[in-house]
Specification:
By secondary structure, this protein is mainly alpha-helical. Helices cover 59% and strands 10% of the residues.
C-alpha cells in the first residue's frame, strides 16, 4: 500500500492551491505554480483543498490522507485501522489520529467500536442514493442561482479546473480527476453565492465518493462534457437549461450503480 505522508503535502496561505498532477511527461514548479504537461498541451491545475495550509492541524492532514486511501480503495471497506500504526506511519502522536478517526466517523467513512477498534465502513447503496437525492436538490438550486448571477472571478477558476479535467481524462489519474470534479462543484456553489450548500454536500457524500471512484475509468470524458454543458447554461443565463444539465449529470451515478454493485459486491454492505 502506498501511503501519503501529510507532512509532504505542499502548503500555502492562499485559499486555492496549485497541485502537481502527473500525466506522464513530468511537471515543474514555476512562479508559485505547478504546470502540468500532458502530451502537447500545458494546463494549470487548481485544487481547492488537497494541499492544505500552514494553519491546518496535524489531525486534519492525517484525516485527508486516510480519506484519500479510503476513497481510492487502498483501504478496503471493512479494513481494520490501527491508531498506533497510523501514528507511526505519519510521524505524529496518537491524538491527531484519534481526532481524524472522529471526523471520518462523522462523515461515515469509518466506524468506531469501543473495545473492538476502528473499521472502514462498507459502501451502502441505499445511503448513496439518499445522499445523491439531497445533493441533487441542493446543486440544482445552486445552478439555478448561478445562471442568474455568477462571480466572474470564480468563473475564471472554473475554466482552469475544466482544463485540468480535460488533461486528466483518460490519463488514469482517477483520484486527481475526482478531486478536480469536487473542486468544480464547490466553485459552482461559491460563484453562485451559496458556499454552505457545498459544505452540506461534502458532509454526506462519503458513500457517493467511492462509487464515483469505481466508475471513473470509463466515465471521465462524459463527465467533462457534462460539466461543460452546465457551464454553458450558466454562461447563457438560462436557469432551466442549467437545472436540466445538472440533473442529467447527477443521474449518471444511478445509471452506473447496478453494474458496480454486481462487479464489486464484496465492497458493499
Amino acid at each position: 500500500m502506498v501511503w501519503q505522508n501529510p507532512n509532504d503535502i505542499s502548503s500555502g496561505n492562499w485559499p486555492y492551491h496549485f497541485t502537481t498532477l502527473e500525466l506522464g511527461s513530468g511537471s515543474k514548479r514555476k512562479s508559485g505554480q505547478i504546470r502540468m504537461k500532458a502530451a502537447t498541451k500545458t494546463v494549470t491545475a487548481i485544487d481547492g483543498d488537497i494541499g492544505g495550509s500552514l494553519q491546518e492541524t496535524a489531525a486534519k492532514r492525517v484525516e485527508r490522507a486516510i480519506r484519500k486511501a479510503i476513497v481510492t480503495l487502498e483501504l478496503k471497506p471493512g479494513a481494520s485501522l490501527s491508531e498506533k500504526e497510523l501514528a507511526e506511519r505519519y510521524g505524529v502522536s496518537r491524538q491527531p489520529v484519534r481526532e481524524a478517526f472522529i471526523s471520518l466517523a462523522r462523515a461515515e467513512f469509518v466506524e468506531i467500536h469501543h473495545r473492538r477498534g476502528t473499521f472502514v465502513v462498507k459502501i451502502s447503496a441505499e445511503k448513496m442514493r439518499q445522499a445523491r437525492f439531497v445533493r441533487e436538490s441542493l446543486e440544482v438550486a445552486v445552478v439555478r442561482a448561478a445562471a442568474k448571477s455568477f462571480d466572474p472571478a470564480v468563473r475564471d477558476r472554473i475554466e482552469q479546473v475544466l482544463a485540468a479535467q480535460e488533461a486528466l481524462s483518460g490519463s488514469g489519474a482517477h483520484y486527481q480527476f475526482q478531486r478536480a470534479d469536487e473542486n468544480f462543484h464547490r466553485l459552482l456553489a461559491i460563484g453562485a453565492g451559496f458556499p454552505v450548500a457545498w459544505s452540506i454536500i461534502d458532509d454526506i457524500k462519503a458513500h457517493m465518493d467511492r462509487v464515483c471512484h469505481l466508475t471513473l475509468p470509463s466515465a471521465t470524458p462524459l463527465l467533462v462534457r457534462q460539466h461543460r454543458a452546465i457551464v454553458a447554461a450558466i454562461d447563457a443565463h438560462d436557469p432551466p437549461r442549467a437545472e436540466t444539465a445538472m440533473h442529467e449529470h447527477l443521474e449518471e451515478i444511478l445509471r452506473a450503480l447496478p453494474d458496480v454493485e454486481v462487479e464489486f459486491a464484496e465492497l458493499f454492505a
